[in-house]
Design a protein that fits this description.
alpha/beta; 2 domains; Aspartate Aminotransferase, domain 2; 356 residues; 13 helices; 4-stranded antiparallel sheet
Amino acid sequence: MTPAEARSRFPVLDRCAYLNAGSVGPLSRRTAEAMRVVEERALAEGRASPRAQEASGALWTRLGERLAALVRVPVENLLLTTSTTEGCNLVVTGLRLEPEHEVVTTDAEHPGLLQPLLASGARIRQARVLERPPSEALNAVLAEVTPRTRLVALSHVLWLNGHVLPLAEIKRATGLPLLVDGAQSVGAVPVDASVADWYTVSGQKWLCGPELTGALYVAEPDRLRPQIQSYAATALTGAGRLALVHLPASLAAGLLAAVEELPGWGFRRAAELVRRCRQALLELGAEVRTEPEQATLVSFRVPGDPAALVKQAEGKGVIIRSLPDGWLRASVGWWNDEQDLDRLAEVVAEARSPSG
Ligand SMILES: Cc1ncc(COP(=O)(O)O)c(C=O)c1O
């Protein structure tokens, strides 16, 4: 499959320079069709007919296998979830943290991780990484570790600036239990989730799957003492026992189709495009806070109201987002091409010289 063929699978790209997979990825025709087929079967044959149930079971198994292979972990250590947020909540509640415990996180975490940490009652210490280069992240994290630290919980790729945190070094240097929010990494960059004790997957972002899909890698399922449980606890072995929901078969079919479409050259192509995007923004005089050679997010700023610029860009068929701290963010995936980046550059050039 060539990049042009891969791109043609996403109808939105016929019209738009879609650069917001960091929120929700583009949907391919094949993924939408896989979901539709399951819904049609449910209409015709009944949602819980023996045949439908058998088909759902096969889908869940295959999806688990594909996701486990993608993040390089054993399939029995992976459970399907609805989101990264659910995965973080499962881990944080299962650790039964107490007020005298401390959790080290960063000052650049998404609420999907931060809110479960705040709800835990433990003392949260935030390593200052947002305003620093990624090379300083390890020391920033280490500076917050104390004898009371029970957990290190942070993102692999920071949603605000796209920087990659050095997970293996953090694990090695702290020796502490490590929960990783993989929302901005899985499907965007190569991932080896086994560096962590727990690692979350969001299906709807860089994997281009349906919304409300995801997974959680759990190195040692017996180490958590779950506070919320489901039918899965009676039926499944391994990490599957921790699952809270049965992913509806249509969602599982959609995510499976999406994961199967990930091309072997995807990570390389995305890295090449993001490099180009960053360079183009710099050449236009935009302020870019993403260091080179990180992941697939580029965060930048131009004078003016960021929300208004996002709207203006949408009017020109360019989809980006503004961030809560006033910066803009472009998400560059393997499905994008040079023309998408040129269209973004035009919007930014116009914002830099509105009268021109
Ligand atoms: C770093 C990070 N963590 C978590 C989330 C939430 O993901 P989910 O909707 O899968 O819970 C996001 C989504 O924007 C994110 O960027």
